## 1
Amino acid sequence: MTIRKKNLTFARKIKLSLNIIYMNKDIVTEVIDSMGLGDFSQATIRDLQSLSKTLEEKTGEPVIHLEMGVPGLQPSEIALKAEQEALANGCATQYPPNGGIPRIKKAASEFVKAFIGVDIDPMCCIPTTGSMQGTFATFLAIKHAVGNTKDTVLLIQPGFPVQTTQCDVIGLKHVGLDIHGYRGKELITKLEDMLKGGNINSIVYSNPNNPSWVCFTEEELEGIGKLATKYDVIILEDLAYFAMDFRRDLSHPYQAPYQATVARYTDNYILWVSGSKAFSYAGQRIGVTCISNTLYNKVYAPLKENFGVGEFGNFFCNRLMYTLSSGTTHSVQHAMAALMEAACDGSYNFLDDVKEYGRRAKFMKDVLLANGFYLVYDNDMGAPLADGFYFTVQYPGMTDLELTRELMYYGIAVFPLDTMGSTQQGVRICTSFFSKEQEPLFKSRIEKFKQEH
């Protein structure tokens, strides 16, 4: 079936579904019970995805998928062409270097300079199998570097729940700080109170934040950077949603405004730049871990004693990346490098396509707020939130678990904030799978929800 025919079929299903506002309640309850989901307190994103698909099969009605943070846009031909050419030229017959091929290391260094405005040597830019592998390798490196003197990771939350799982798998302790009540000077004061204990080895956050979409200000990042230097902790900045704060145009290379970063205020940092969201290349699993020049060359006695390699970056490349996967898939490094090269020379505006996420977010926010919902994380230091990949909402009188379950009866799948380190009640809305054809169906289902609640 062609893409056009698929779209027409989907559109017809949506049109028919406007007459059926919510799922058959008996079927929904039966499926939830059969899957053992109960009150949803133990449900994972994958559980909710599986539930949604089962309901679609049993009812014949489409579920509006807002639960999965998976990119929903087509990647650029630049990446596809570069990877195809690399394969045609025989790269599949060769192991890639542990620290990455020279092309992507140079491209990543230039990309950081062009869009973040900081200098990181190509040697210090290491491609990984998605930023997920980058975070896992980083946590491992920190654990071995600091020994038992600092055994705890501080996660600024809400955040990506897999990172806490990675810490658990590695055996790193972790604590969280929900930013809902801490912004500006209050955030810096609270962080310093937590750092004074001497057990924190690193601070992790995403910027823009998953799932709240708040963005740290330069003043906050400066404060975090100063604390990193003062207490000798490493700042781990997850840039999975690179430059997707659409309130400012961050798409022009080598000119302000730049992506906000802690890298301007400390040498104790690692940046994770992902190919998944901003470049819509999630399936090929590519990211780049960018270690500050100072940290890359810093010698840690436990690394030298236990592994014969004292430098942090050397250990990352030639011990961790070597043992984890012997480097990152050869062909995809060429794809990511080509995207970064084109972005730097101005021939490819990588933000043009992903602005669609912002349009979708605005539509859904308008519908939800007009029907009694409210934003949980509702402002950025007094400024309205950007419209982007995620946002968070709640409905009066419900817990986040109750709302997650109740919306499923109306064919809308969301994810509760409970599992993301939030102390607030609410659900995460992801815009990635929401299509323009679904807008009337979403509006009618939310209006019906309001009528019945």
Note: The CA atoms of residues 143 and 171 lie 9 Å apart.
## 2
Amino acid sequence: MKSKKVFLVGKVHEVGPATIMSVQQEIQNDLDVLTDGHKVVVSIGIPNPKEIEVSFERMATDDLLKQDMINTVDADIITGEGLGDFRMPEPIPRAPFGTYFNCFIDQTEFIDCYKKSARALGASRMKDIKLEITPDCVKLKLTY
């Protein structure tokens, strides 16, 4: 598999068989900073030469899940929004300032913002992006 430039947790990373473990560790270090020690564990897999799967394991309750939606906390974990001074070139929609309740974004809208930001940051062009969200994991599947 030829390396792909993948936008994850505030940076574009070159991911390939030779770099997968070092990229995974770098992302884990950034996640530890982003989540202020709340444990989120990243794992990256290459199921076939045209696909990369990134899993973010975390514990959530069912009230953080809504059909066809992504929680803003999960969106921020994937994108790295708020890590240092990082801001996405194409920001995801936010609740009004001062809102303290849980917020959700339509998955299609999130994927659109993610794809546009990845392109603006110089990531490899993707054919398809899918999200799988469960109480203990958010999985991002990128197809090239």
Note: Residues 95 and 101 are 9 Å apart (CA to CA).
## 3
Amino acid sequence: MSQSTIDEELALYVDTAKSDAIHAFEFLRDSSTLSASLIFQISHRIPGQDKLLSVRFAQPWERDKTPRVKITRFSDQKESLLNESRLEADTLIHAHTPYLAAWSLAHKPFPILYVAAQRHLLAREIPNHLERTRSPLEVVRERLDARPDLAPPPALLESNGGANFWGTGIVKTAELILLIEEAARFQAIAAQIGGAQTYTPGAIELQWKRTGLLERASQYAVA
């Protein structure tokens, strides 16, 4: 394969990924999933190459709304969460969402008690990154080492801030952000009438069966 063909394929891949990133940003913004500051930053590993695509979106007060796209060497990003193979992720998104940020501010892990989110996730909660002097990668690896019986979380709350989310594909990862933030919103509303309750017997297994995750879910502890 010639160098020009490789360059053309890379350019096409980057254009498609950029389009996916813009689509993800727009549906998260339009659904009020993102906070008013519109903090939304994507890192995506380009398959088969030592390249990391980064897309950063403008905040509301910036006059130039053009997304900033950059390609760097993935091997230079030693602290990226994408280095942890147990997460099975090629996409990392840093975003601020209103209701999950409240859990970050409260210094509490977020329990996933909303079926629309849980049916797509093996993990039952999202931990809070309290020791901010330590990297997210270090914190996540420590959790995975200490509790291999628990499914890897899909995100890490950033204490007193937003959250880091990861997954496979830009759009799919953004879809999970929408559903997890929706869960946090509904659970906040439920707190006004006694609080969100845990799933009734068999309910969560039914949800996993619908998305084909039931067999994998059986490999992990419930809590």
Note: Helices lie at 3-30, 98-105, 115-118, 136-146, 170-190, 203-211, 214-217.
